[in-house]
Amino acid sequence: MMHPLSNSKEGEEVVVQCLNCSCDDTCRLNDLGCVEGINGKIISNQKNIILQVGETRLAIAEKLAKSILVSPRI
User: Fold this and answer.
1) Are 40 and 14 in contact (CB under 8 A)?
2) CATH superfamily name and code, 3-72
3) Strands, sheet with 13-19, edge to edge from the N-terminal-most edge strand
4) Which pLDDT does position 3 carry in this prediction?
5) Of 18, 13, 20, nearest to 51 (Cα)?
6) CA atoms 6, 7, 10, 12: torsion sign
7) What CA–CA distance (Å, rounded) separates 18 from 52?
8) In degrees, to the nearest 5, what angle opens at C-alpha 64 toward C-alphas 16 and 72?
9) What pLDDT is attached to residue 47?
10) Count of CB atoms within 10 A of residue 28's CB?
11) What are the boundaries of each domain within the chain?
C-alpha cells in the first residue's frame, strides 16, 4: 500500500514508487540516486526525513517528502 514518505517510520524499509513533485525536484532526486523502484531505509523522521539509498543518505524536507510515494519493502 503506497503512502507519502513523510508518513514512514524510523527503521522502515521502503520502495520508492512515485516521485510526484516538480520536474526540477524529480531531476535532482534522480541525480542523487532516488529513482522509482529503488529500495531505501528511513534513518530519521523528524522535521526532515533522512532516507538512505544505497550508501547515500538524503535529507528531504517534509514538504517534498509528502510528494514522494513509497510502499513497504517486502
Assistant:
1) yes
2) Ferrous iron transport protein A (FeoA) (2.30.30.90)
3) 3-4, 68-72, 13-19, 39-45, 48-53, 56-61
4) 96
5) 13
6) negative
7) 17
8) 25
9) 87
10) 14
11) 3-72
